[in-house]
Amino acid sequence: MFKKEAEGESETCRAVVLTDFGGYEKLKVKDIPKPEIKDEHVIIEVKACGMNFADLYTRQGIYTFRGMKPPFVLGSEAAGIISEIGAKVEDIKMGDRVLCWSYAYNMFSEFVLVHKSQCYPIPENMTYMEANCIVNNYLTAYLCIVDFGNLRSGQSVLIQAAAGGVGWAATQIAKSVENVTVFGTSSPSKHDLIRENGVTHAIDYTKTDFVEEILKISPLGVNVILDCLSGNDFTRAQKCLKPLGRIIHIGITGMMQGEKRNFMKNLKVWWQTKDIGMFNLINNNNAVCGLSINNLFEKDPDAFRCGVGKIIDLYKEQKIKPRIDSVWSFDEIIEATKCMVERKNIGKIILVPKKEDNVDKVEQFQN
């Protein structure tokens, strides 16, 4: 909860602050001023926040929204209860349970100020933890598989990092289409779980060449590829595309190697990804697409919110089910970050403001 440090001082709340670009030591839990309400905004008492791979890019300084520089509060998504409401807010009310997002960060905090357009009511049976999977994971997956990918019955898809937050969501979205074959890459320890989630052919990327494995099973390749890796893996993956196949690029996890930024690794991955051979695309009848949902929200917020609504509907129809990997308190932000850096998670990593308020939930997932 927020507090007053002394008489006459402003109210404060706890938040995860990125103090500078660099290693784990740059993540600090600090008291910051509690946000003040504005006319078209709401203040949300946060119950849970969602971690994403983009948080790792941000910490290392590989990419930040509009080149933002630290210090700032990390996080792009949260869920909680509306505790204050602006004078010009009509569609939502005090006490509503909502998910919210901000690609200018500030979500890893006990209280967040969010524009009314960046809030969405969540169904009664959806937990605050599950709500943190809807935008960055399931909306990304939906736009890739359904909109760009146009996946249809009888087709096939390759999902890179099938055990991650987006990969887990994409598998379920793909399986909502009848008679679809799903290839998914992950470390072998995760194969049983990704198969249970709907992956038809699990590929151990640590020991085998995913291109060779796919072409052994499906010599013509696949119809759709969801790529979050970038670099050489992105370039080689195009060898797996059938005629009229589509590859959708959404991330740069290939740049991530260890705790701190590796400039040579970053440069190599960027160099391997920067050129798209138009002649090859024409000759092979393929398409390459790219997706950034934060830019989509800025340029076409109606399409963004329409997509969120479709995901909520799929949840209500029980066609999708988010998987929570682990839950950590703000004070455990470094441990939570290591879990993601070391690719230990299967599904979503969640942060909660205080462990003592969520002991049952934290222990349930961490033991």
UniProtKB/TrEMBL annotation:
InterPro entries xrefs: ADH-like_N (IPR013154), ER (IPR020843), GroES-like_sf (IPR011032), NAD(P)-bd_dom_sf (IPR036291), Quin_OxRdtase/zeta-crystal_CS (IPR002364), SV-ATPase_mito-regulator (IPR052100)
Q: Which GO terms describe its molecular function?
A: oxidoreductase activity; zinc ion binding
CDD domains the UniProt entry points to: MDR3
Q: Which PROSITE patterns match?
A: QOR_ZETA_CRYSTAL
Q: Residue limits of the Enoyl reductase (ER) domain?
A: 22-351
- What's a Pfam family in this record? ADH_N
| Keywords of the record | Oxidoreductase
Cross-referenced Gene3D superfamilies: Medium-chain alcohol dehydrogenases, catalytic domain, NAD(P)-binding Rossmann-like Domain
Q: Does the keyword Oxidoreductase apply?
A: yes
Does this entry carry the keyword Hydrolase?
A: no
Q: What family classification does the UniProt entry report for this protein?
A: Belongs to the zinc-containing alcohol dehydrogenase family. Quinone oxidoreductase subfamily.
**Stated name of the protein:** Enoyl reductase (ER) domain-containing protein
- Species of the source: Oedothorax gibbosus
